[in-house]
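Agenda item 2: pyridoxal-5'-phosphate complex prediction
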Amino acid sequence: MNLIEQIEVQLDALNAKSLRRRRRIADTACAPRVTVDGNPMLAFCSNDYLGLAAHPKIIAALREGAEKYGVGSGASHLISGHSRAHAMLEERLADFMSGYIPSAAALYFCTGYMANLAMLSGMTAVAGPDTVIFSEGLNHASLIDGAKLSRAQVKVFPHGDVLALKAMLENSNATSKIVVTDSVFSMDGDLAPIPAILALCEQHNAWLVIDDAHGFGCLGEHGRGVLEHFDLHSPNVIYMGTLGKAAGVGGAFVAAHATVIDWLVQKARPYIYTTAAPPALAHALLTSLDIIAGEEGHARRLHLQDLIAQLRRDLRLKRWALMESITAIQPIIIGDNAESMRAAASLYEQGLWVPAIRPPTVQEGTARLRVTLSAAHTNDDVACVVEAINELESA
Ligand SMILES: *Cc1c(COP(=O)(O)O)cnc(C)c1O
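Presented output:
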């Protein structure tokens, strides 16, 4: 076999298991009403939870940022790419999170994936091989990859199992202990028991790394995320929030005690060895944060809560099961892979874009439709998808 044929065999194997992925092309901005592969669709699949991805004020801010700072940053942050816009954004983010993390500072990243690689590899560099990372069973791929990059020892605790984590921490004599968890689980929509996990971390002098990709902007009265939701304050917390989901733009940040942030700047290779994101994005994010923190953000969060309640109230499922979730992620467990694919295909034919999620992304036997809601949806949009799903299930 030549080199290309070796790959083709593997691709054919994916095909045979209906696991070959393809990308659909969106011709319009991220919004509930999109044109996909030329077809008008009503979409329930983005992470644009507050509907800010095409907000006119943020578009104007991005334009203004480009006028002011140009397009590219030209270099990494430690060479010459760290612009005033990045610095202002980091200051705003630190201020935004300061009620929950004492002496908070923040560091802006190009993506959440890189922020997670940087946090875990950078924090492992403090004590080196005598570090143990305690990782929650359903953590996002970027945390799993970050743990691998760190070369720390990794111990996985079962999803939501605080007692198992407690036993692991009690039995560990590692110099440096890092507990890492998603706050909102991306395929299930449920919340990690962060208060109990944080209490354990404080008891065992462990860091708690929280990935709040789906919480930042949505959870808490002011959108400050899972720490505000549970009203938690701790110097042990190293917090990651993404800015391409609810914040509607792109990138991510880590907020932690200023000493931690200074250390990451010295040691976190995924921060150091990459070109800084375009400063215009950081500039646009200042406007996004204003919206999130202000009355408009509050109104959008309330509307999103109303849509979530409507969906949960009006779905009438007998064979399929709506998972327990207070977040914008509302998965409907179907179980069988093929039936899930058929359901998604049938909705798609009706102009409703709801993704089917299969193994290996989720556990075998738990294939599902994953409905995600956005404040940009109307009550009528939700009524539309609810009716279609009710009908499909009873057909
Ligand atoms: C989306 C996501 C990330 C990655 O963030 P990006 O900015 O998209 O790279 C990390 N963790 C979780 C839980 C996510 O859902």
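Discussion summary: The chain has 15 helices and 14 strands.
Owner for follow-up: CH.
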